[in-house]
Amino acid sequence: MGKKLTAALLYFVLMLPAAALAEEKDSSILKLEELNVQVMPEFANHPNDKKAEQPPLLIGYQGSLINQSPNAQTGKIEIPLPVNEENFRIGFAADYSSDLSQMYEIEYELDLKKGTISWETSRQIEPNDQYKFVIEFYTDAINVKNETKTLDYSFKSFADITLVNVTVLEPMKSSNVKLSPPATEAPHENPYGLKMHTYQMKGMKAGEEKNFSLTYNRKETKTTSELMEEVNGQSVPAKAVKTEKAPLGLTIAGISAASLLAAGLLILFLKKRQRQTIEPATANPGIGSEKRAQLRKMLVDGSITETEYSELLKKFNQ
To answer: Would you call 237 exposed, middle or buried from its count of C-beta atoms within 10 A (0-12, 13-18, 19+)?
Structure first.
């Protein structure tokens, strides 16, 4: 059924300086405590695409690691991504401050030959400290036959993970939605009325694989985020967005509170800036990554509209 998207996640590596590695070689340094996987068909186009002929699939990983060693750690983190999937592209990558109040874009490297993304941690990870990261990427894995869309998704764990949540978001204006196997949690809606299906898996081992099949009917060609923008633009005055618009639980990158994770409000809402995917990413000299992250956070919590977000980016880059 449909095209099979396999997240070929084989391993997870923290590459430490030689001295630290020598000290910690006999212990497990970082424990991947939680991984939230968002599977979002037709939610948004890649930032470089004004309109896509193929219905886009957006997938996001938000990981939470714990430093189990007695020493503070810094280094390079490397995880596999399904780079061989059709039209694979990174949309956004970031990590968080220790108190989760700030988000920082990652200067990452995408190695297409190895099939991995890697980055340097933006801060020192203290003993028993939590380190969160988010990676968002797009593929053309949705199979289309007239108005019927199908997606076969396979998640293969790249590490021993205490808790994995896979959430599938129904596209707006879709019908006859069928998921197999049924979600482990009862279907629930976010503040915008979008239905979400969550699979909770405890104690996944490295190499363990879970498969999911989704079918639905949808005639609408606009993405969910475009439809949401139209509705909000008509019904919510720009000056009142902050108070009248309920915050999204995610751009996965926008979340900063564990309570939102528990509430299952993990949704990506984005029109993101261009990102290189073959060469190591470099920061735009016109605006610092921290400022871009803050603008993005303002977009997520409703402080500014997407139009204002784009205008502010242009102004900063002048």
So the answer is: exposed
Q: Is 254 helix (H, G, I), strand (E, B) or coil?
A: helix
Sheet holding 13-15, edge to edge: 13-15, 76-80, 116-120, 108-111
Distances from the Cα of 229 to the Cα of 2, 3, 43, 168, 245, angstroms: 30, 30, 12, 21, 11
CA 23 – CA 26 distance, rounded (Å): 8
The model's pTM is 0.70
The residue extents of the domains of the chain are 4-219+252-282
173 CB-near residues (< 8 Å, 6+ apart): 218, 219, 220, 227
Tens of pLDDT, residue by residue over 1-58, are 444 444 433 345 544 443 343 344 434 688 899 999 999 999 999 988 877 789 999 9
Separation between Cα atoms, residue 228 and residue 104, nearest integer Å: 26
Residues contacting residue 109 through CB under 8 Å, at least 6 positions apart: 117, 118, 119, 280, 281
Residues facing 111 on adjacent strands: 116
| DSSP per residue, 120-149 | E-SS-B-TT-EEEEEEEEEE---EEETTEE
Alpha-carbon separation of residue 317 from 133, 168, 288, 311 (angstroms): 26, 36, 10, 10
Count of beta carbons in the 10 Å neighbourhood of residue 180 = 11
Structure tokens, 96: 């968080």
Of 269, 30, 7, the C-alpha closest to 132 is 30
For the domain bounded by 4-219+252-282, which CATH number is listed?
2.60.40
Instruction: Supply 124's token pair.
Output: 């020192």
